[in-house]
Amino acid sequence: MLKTFLINLDRRPDRLMFVKQQLENLGIDFERVSAVDGSCLTDEQRAVFNQQRFALECKRKVVDGEIGCALSHQAVWQRMVAENISYALILEDDVQLKPELASLLADSRNYESFDFLNLTLKRPFYDIDTTAVNLFVTQQQFIRPRFWQLYKRRSWRLMESKAIVRWKIFRLHVLSNDLTACECDIAPSLACCYIVSLQGAKNMLLASKTLFYPIDKVWQYSGGQLKEAFLAEPLAFQSLDSDIPHRVRFKLTLVQRFKRFFVKGRHWQRLFDVVRMYGWTRL
Fold first, then answer.
1. What CA–CA distances, in Å, run from 103 to 20, 24, 100, 175, 262?
2. Into how many domains does the chain fold?
3. Residue range(s) defining the domain that contains residue 17
4. CATH code, domain carrying 109
5. What is the β-pairing status of strands 116-118 and 228-231?
6. If we measure between CA atoms, which residue out of 91, 102, 110 comes closest to residue 31?
7. What is the pLDDT of residues 143-199, one digit of tens each?
8. For the whole prediction, is pTM greater than 0.90?
9. Phi and psi for 4 in degrees, rounded to 5?
10. Quick one: CA dihedral 230, 232, 235, 241, positive or negative?
């Protein structure tokens, strides 16, 4: 069975029991990872974030809970590297799981094609036209048409354009239990339930040495031609109130807006990798 890590704060045994019961019902063994508590951080831990750059990038201050969350995920990736764990399922303790998760994990072919497979979506911010996905699967069209295939391209983009955050879907993968994984760029920025490869863990550790964005965006900045995907029908949902309060956006000053134009993250490394992986004709 896939190695499973559950990130949980010591002061939240209620959340531990919430997810533990679900995992036991699904027959999934897990290891609890003590989360880094944002309420008692050291100066060294806070230094993981470039706070000024974060303010320009996100139009708000980074909060201590975000720092603790980032350090907790990094700790799991470091465990994977240290113990040479090929793949791992990583969960946060506010996740609601669907029964189909057990069958997905039971067959390694469902996830070994990817370096990062996000099992959750947050609608309507992240959304996808599942009717269009099912249509392409039925038609055995699994690869994004090239730019000169105008009619096919227009139809394919219907599947992509429902999301507030725009992504490109490059391949469809039919998994067990009629689940479909969408190999994509960008992968959804949610970190409550995902599967990551050893190579993905290494590259995300490298990309997160100094953060100027929340940890659940690190796969957008990770190099190394990582294959990223999400499920058209998610198997996990964030179901509880966040333990990271006070994320309040503010209006940038004129000077800050000027600086933001030059320093805002462009995902250049990821873009170059995507071109190498799929070819510029499929962008």
1. 18, 14, 6, 10, 46
2. 1
3. 3-282
4. 3.90.550
5. parallel
6. 91
7. 999 999 999 999 998 888 766 677 899 999 999 889 999 999 988 888 999 999 999
8. yes
9. -125, 130
10. positive
